Amino acid sequence: INVYARKRPLFDPEKKRGEYDVVSVKSGSTAVVHNCQMHADLKRMFVKHCAYTLSGGVFDEDAQEHDVYDRSAAPLVAGTLKGGVGALFMYGQTGSGKTHTMENIEKHAIEALFVGDGAAAGAKSIKVSYFEIAGKACVDLLQPGRVEIRLKELFEEQGDALTGQMEVELMGAKEPVVTSASDLKKVIDEGKSRRQTSATQCNASSSRSHAVMRLTVTLSDGSMGRLTLVDCAGSERKEDNTHHNEKQRKETAEINASLYALKECVRFRRLKFSGARNSNVHVPYRNSPLTRVLAECFVREDAGVAVIGTMSPASIDTEHSLATLKTINAIGGNEDS
């Protein structure tokens, strides 16, 4: 499991509002949030410097898109082209650059699968699934009319015993097979046009669902690999609910619950496979539709998993950035700094 963070630039409108940069990146591996707080006398202020060192590294605001891809996603693509499975998911506050980062990772992954590494590895075709998870519902983004998908677990058998290998079948999903980068891009664009967004206090066009893209690659030798990319719904604090209507508050509760389930599954997977192995550890992937979709990455030891937490540097978003770093730091198995 590799954990990364990415800091976006401070935008001009934020500067004009008087916002200032509260996030520093040290040596490409540590993010420091400079949290301005008040003393108990409510008269004097002080700055608490909260540092988080992440296993994968930290990208600053000047990081190039290809660098982010090469370090975080390229190893997962390479594993997929060898018949493995991998998942990358974006986590962070609404407006922190999640979707922007994911779109660029998608772009580079498509190029690698069809033009670069894919051609060398003998990728024949790719079956693509694209759907959103809103609450407990999985809705196909490749069909009109908000068609719901059912998740069915399939376990691999060897004789009379289960091997421990499994996958989740998407019952009722439209899963076109594409043979070119341009065809795959068209499918993705179609899905994105159907994704649910709504205005929130944080962002005028906030994603209120998790978008999941599954790319199942058929190789020339007949073997198959799978890459799953998840653009999580924007994580928001309980305090933000004061600006939401009842429907939005329910959505936020469901989003936060699924993100918590995801965090727990990654944590239990780490306990199961790293260090002193414990085969008795059960990864609770059935706790949410999001974690069920990613189940094979939690139960297979050879699966690759990466998480990128995105941060806004604006002073008004200090608590959000701290919460993101705290969450992804815990996923990586570290205590708070």
Number of beta strands:
16
Average per-residue pLDDT, rounded, comes to 86
Which structural class matches the secondary elements? alpha/beta
CATH homologous superfamily grouping: Kinesin motor domain
Biggest pleated-sheet summary: 9 strands, mixed
User: Which architecture would the CATH scheme give at its second level?
Assistant: 3-Layer(aba) Sandwich
Number of helices: 10
Helix content class: 25-40%
Shape: globular
* Uncertain residue ranges: 157-163, 198-206
Q: State the assembly state of the protein chains.
A: single chain
Order of helices and strands: EHEEEEHHEHHEEEEEHEEEEHHHEH
* Computed CA radius of gyration, to the nearest angstrom: 20 Å
Overview of this structure, please?
GO terms for molecular function: ATP binding; microtubule binding; microtubule motor activity. One of its GO terms (biological process) is microtubule-based movement. InterPro entries: Kinesin-like_fam, Kinesin_motor_dom, Kinesin_motor_dom_sf, P-loop_NTPase. Helix content is 31%, strand content 32%. It has 337 residues and is an alpha/beta fold. The protein has a single domain, classed as Kinesin (3-Layer(aba) Sandwich). The strands form four sheets. Strands 1, 5, 6, 7, 8, 11, 14, 15 and 16 form a nine-stranded mixed β-sheet that branches. β12 and β13 form a beta hairpin. α2 crosses α4 and α7 packs parallel to α10. The longest helix is centred in the last third of the chain and has 28 residues. About 5% of the residues have low confidence.
